[in-house]
Design goal:
Blueprint: E1 2-6, H1 12-15, E2 16-20, E3 30-39, H2 42-49, E4 60-61, E5 66-73, E6 85-88, E7 100-104, E8 108-110, H3 116-119, H4 125-134, E9 143-146, H5 152-164, E10 167-172, H6 175-183, E11 188-191, H7 196-204, E12 209-214, H8 222-225, E13 228-236, H9 249-254, E14 258-261, H10 264-270, H11 273-288, E15 296-300, H12 305-312, E16 320-324
Parallel strand pairs: 9-10, 9-12, 10-11, 12-13, 13-14, 15-16
Antiparallel strand pairs: 1-2, 1-4, 3-5, 3-7, 3-16, 5-6, 6-8
Length: 326
């Protein structure tokens, strides 16, 4: 069985190795899953570099999310799960960049028949987009502003916001990306630049944002924060360009902006299992029905992992990079 192993924290090119091991057997409360596909996320690459909120003991298997077929189960597990397609929860206790994985039964969720590549990306980006909207307390007609709108999470926010009757104001770095977001259903798509604040004011035409979300960090969300309504909410769910910069004194005090962070791991570790299962099952149905999808730019086998990592780290991608297993 092939799998990728993190041997040291550092560059993905040198910190990860391809290893061979014997077929694992499930324990009493475990299942063995034959992986079909597994995503490469920025959080995976940050973990490899030692910059993520989770820091596993080395050597460690890697890869946070994936999908596959249950091949075997321990004697305490209901045997009806064998043969079913399941998604693996990103608990960081096992790696999905592997031909097989043995995990606790509680760490898998059965999913309907759908494209395995889309299901392989279900537990992180769609869950993040859903929870960012779910926890915001918005009502029909409210505006959501976001940076990095052409990212996987950004595209999913657009789709899920439309289902909720919310409007989206989307900021990207290139006009071709703005056109893609408009085609995907974004109400407004703007290109960041020196006139962004004026463009936002003009696009809202007297309205204000109820929610601002950003994965970038720095002060790149500042023009959106300036457009938040009184006691509007800003949520930073990443720091891809540096530590997030907080709201101005005027926004913080005069308009009482609520500024906070979001890490999906907290939800997986703290939410009741029933809530996790219900949420992921709901998102899986949307994927199965074709209502929710993310572009996939390329797939690789494990023995091409260095090419896969290099591709996943490029900034001009038009979709996600995945490992697939024949």
């Amino acid at each position: 069985m092939q799998h990728l192993v993190l041997t040291q924290f550092g560059s993905p090119d040198t910190a990860v190795e391809l290893a061979e091991s014997s077929q694992p057997s499930p324990g009493a409360d475990q299942v063995r899953v034959r992986l079909e596909a597994a995503a490469i996320n920025p959080s995976d690459l940050m973990l490899i570099q030692g910059k993520y909120l989770v820091r596993p003991k080395l050597p460690a298997t890697v890869g946070a999310e994936g999908v596959g077929i249950v091949e075997d189960a321990g004697h305490e597990v209901d045997r009806s799960i064998v043969g079913k397609r399941v998604i693996l929860l990103p608990t960081y206790e096992y790696g999905t960049w592997s031909q097989h994985a043995v995990v606790a039964e509680r760490d898998v969720v059965a999913v309907p028949d759908a494209d395995p590549q889309q299901l392989a990306m279900l537990t992180i980006n769609p869950a993040t987009a859903h929870l960012l909207l779910e926890q915001a307390g918005l009502t029909v007609g409210d505006w959501v502003g976001q940076t990095a709108a052409n990212s996987a999470v950004g595209r999913l926010v657009v789709a899920l916001a439309r289902r909720r009757g919310l409007k989206t104001l989307n900021v990207v770095r290139r006009e071709d990306a703005a056109a893609d977001i408009r085609d995907a259903g974004g109400d407004v798509a703007l290109v960041s630049g020196p006139d962004l604040a004026a463009d936002i004011t003009r696009a809202l035409d007297g309205d204000e944002l109820g929610l601002v979300i950003s994965p970038l960090g720095g002060d790149l969300a500042a023009p959106l924060l300036d457009a938040l309504k009184f006691r509007g909410k800003a949520v930073m769910y990443g720091s891809l360009t540096g530590a997030p910069s907080g709201p101005s004194a005027a926004n913080l005090f005069a308009r009482e902006i609520r500024f906070t962070g979001f890490w999906l791991g907290n939800w997986f570790f703290r939410a009741p299992r029933r809530e996790v299962v219900d949420t992921l099952s709901y998102l899986a149905r949307l994927v199965s029905d074709g209502e929710l999808s993310v572009p996939v730019e390329a797939t690789y086998h494990l023995d091409d992992y260095q090419k896969a990592f290099a591709h996943a780290q490029t900034t001009q991608r038009g979709g996600k990079v995945l490992f697939t297993f024949d």
